[in-house]
Amino acid sequence: MAIKSVSIRIEEEMLNKISHIADYEGRSVNSQVLVLIRENIKAFEDANGVIDGNITPDSNVKPTRK
User: Fold this and answer.
1) How many CB atoms within 10 Å of residue 18?
2) Cα-based distances in Å from 30 to 6, 7, 48, 51
3) Contact 18/27 with Cβ under 8 angstroms?
4) In this predicted structure, what is the pLDDT of residue 38?
């Protein structure tokens, strides 16, 4: 599996808070963000089913509101 880099824009206060949490948990900010992403993916898949590993742009579109 390839490792990719992502750059994000984040408010300073939010970065300070996530940094505090990461320090408390004994992680880097990067590792803490990965934990949060993994938890979010798991919660989504638990609610909606497993996301196919072959995601294409047409299937990666937010569904219309009900």
Assistant:
1) 15
2) 10, 11, 27, 23
3) no
4) 94
Question: What's the Cα-to-Cα distance from 8 to each of 12, 15, 61, rounded to whole Å?
Answer: 12, 11, 21
CB 21 within 8 Å of CB 32: yes
Instruction: Tell the residue number behind the tokens 């984040």, with chain if given.
Output: 10
User: pLDDT grade, residue 55 (50/70/90)?
Assistant: confident
Q: Is 65 left (phi over 0), alpha (psi -120 to 50) or beta?
A: beta
d(CA 24, CA 33) in angstroms, rounded, equals 14
Tokens, residue 34: 């990965």
pTM: 0.76
CA 28 – CA 26 distance, rounded (Å): 7
Token duo for residue 55: 């995601």
